[in-house]
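User: Hi! I'm working on a homework problem where we have to compare a predicted structure to a textbook description. Could you give me the structure for the chain below?
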Amino acid sequence: MLDRAGPNAVALHCLPAERGAEITSEVLDGPRSLVWRQAANRLPTAQAVLHTLLTTGRQTQNPGLSGD
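Assistant: Happy to help. Predicted structure tokens:
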């Protein structure tokens, strides 16, 4: 599929990947794969979202969650 997609197309996958079933090793490890960069960015992105959700909850008062 990647060959048919055009010369500027890249492969992405959210991992874990089942090699041979979901994606071939050639694509996963190939020069047009951004899978490993995507995986490396996933943790700090998730941490930033979690941090934002936790700190936003402390800064605002939600009457429905005040425990009164």
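For your comparison, note the following. The chain has one domain: 2-58. The mean pLDDT is 88. Good luck with the assignment!
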